[in-house]
Amino acid sequence: MSEKRNHSAPHTTDPYTPEYLHTYNGDSLYAVAILFIVLVTVCVTLRFYARRMGNVTWGLDDSLVIPVDLSDGALGYHEAAVAASHPEKLVRRAKFILVAPLLYLNAVLFPKLAILATYLRIFTPSSYRKICWALVVLLVANWFTFTVACFKMCTPLAYLWNRTIVGGYCFDINLFYRWSAFPNIATDVAMLILPIPVVWKLHTSRNIKVGLTIMFATGSM
Asked: What global pTM score does this model have?
């Protein structure tokens, strides 16, 4: 489903006030990004430290969790302001529109595969293991499908950052972003619910069951 777009006229700053053009909220975006980079690094480090202290054998889930921890495009400014002062950065931003979902898809895939690998190591009932494998297949299929779609955003692809190409067009990128998140939300919910019945069937105290439920819920989120 695609829609042809007419070549738009160059951006004009006339309708915008100076206050609007100088609005900047990049600091909060950078702060959130840095916060989660630090949290992920700490959590991954603590995971390997705990496994080393417990002398736990290296597993597939340990390998899959490594990629989890692994451009200035005028972030935080209005597009009209960037077009007036640094129009070349809009080209960089357009290229980032291609890169961002690719990074997102990989950042989502590997942690979930690591969690499912942990479930497969823990769960013994065949029904739960089948659900885990079904989720693995779904996640990989979703990753492959949306990765291919990323390179089909525009025809030709260069039209994404060069709107002077005659005959170029793009599909609805905002709609693509929304729908690419939906399967990940669905699998989040499934992985959140999956271990709960197993945990509450364990022959142990209620406090331990609650603690295990919180641990699995935190991991799936």
From this structure: 0.61
